[in-house]
UniProtKB/TrEMBL annotation:
This is Adenylosuccinate lyase. It comes from the Bacteria.
């Protein structure tokens, strides 16, 4: 395998890792922030409806 081809394969792997982070990690962080904000308001986060419930 030539060094140029090996470098190209490494760039593809890095690109796949970046896409994975963008697709899976960022929405998870946003969802966690929404749950935390709901709890701070004194509510309870309903996971079925994905809404903050204040009673």
């Amino acid at each position: 395998m030539t060094p140029a081809r090996k470098k190209s394969m490494n760039l593809v792997a890095v690109g796949a890792a970046v896409v994975f982070i963008l697709v899976y990690t960022i929405p998870t962080i946003q969802h966690t922030a929404a749950v935390d904000a709901c709890v701070e308001q004194g509510g309870r986060y309903d996971y079925d409806t994905e809404a903050c419930v204040t009673e």
